[in-house]
């Protein structure tokens, strides 16, 4: 981090109990990046959960935001996939982190996008936009995902092709993964789409579900409450619209304490919400 940035916002001081060290950073577009940090030895989490991470503010207090852990529960490090909000209190600074810097990570994982919150089923649908892919980057690398389901369908929609790159690279890496490569086999059906730039598949997740296009393209039956389970992660508007569609297919929303056919989590808190 440059000295001018340090003047306003410094990485966590090494003596802070919740400081973790950055081990890798990759910028995917001018709005998206991913990074990896050391994992606290005591941290146990379920793939799909989120934690609070951040940097030390110049007022001497931690500036923390919710982040889905994008790495699976078995990984020795933790991975995150982040937006860069130009004037965002945290990400305007976080986007400049480099290997060796430290971030603050509160080791209290929570969240609803976990296997325990769904009843057993045949197919698992992972439905996301933008950075809503992050919890699914964890679940796509989780062995339980393939032990529990015959088929896993990953729908990810962004405005432009470049915004799909993190998800695309992750899906491509699965086949060679020594731990889960064989388990994934041909169970995973990846269905990325764009809405504002030409791509081989286009359209909103919502439109591709209601029109039946995704079922036709993947040669799958229409979603039904007996066989299909879903996890949803996007903007509030996306989540509201997808929830209504899933309910239209007869699925009911579940929670950790009350497992049902689908679960929802916000990828971010939007303006005025
Ligand atoms: P903020 O003041 O927090 O946000 C400013 C504005 O930027 C928001 O009002 C919204 O309009 C927009 N915005 C914020 N986050 C996003 C986003 N991810 N995509 C598009 N627009 C956004 N963010 C991630 O990048 N990766 C994650 O894995 C992630 N997981 C989250 C999990 C949960 C449960 C929640 C509630 C939020 C999550 N977020 C995630 C959002 C994150 O907490 C911050 O909002 C984000 O890092 C921006 O922080 P900021 O301080 O720079 O700006
Ligand atoms: P669109 O381009 O048609 O608005 P954003 O960048 O605004 O967060 O959007 C990310 C992706 O999510 C875009 O492809 C966008 O499509 C899509 N999207 C936005 N709102 C909804 C919604 N309510 N339902 C389904 N898809 C949505």
Automatic annotation (TrEMBL):
Any one GO molecular function term: ferredoxin-NADP+ reductase activity
Residue span, FAD-binding FR-type domain: 15-116
Pfam family, one: NAD_binding_1
Keyword NADP attached: yes
EC number: 1.18.1.2
Keywords: FAD, Flavoprotein, NADP, Nucleotide-binding, Oxidoreductase
SUPFAM superfamilies: Ferredoxin reductase-like, C-terminal NADP-linked domain (SSF52343), Riboflavin synthase domain-like (SSF63380)
Cofactor: FAD
Source species, domain of life: Bacteria
Catalyzed reactions: 2 reduced [2Fe-2S]-[ferredoxin] + NADP(+) + H(+) = 2 oxidized [2Fe-2S]-[ferredoxin] + NADPH
Family statement drawn from the similarity comment of this UniProt entry: Belongs to the ferredoxin--NADP reductase type 1 family.
Protein name: ferredoxin--NADP(+) reductase
Species of origin: Cypionkella sinensis
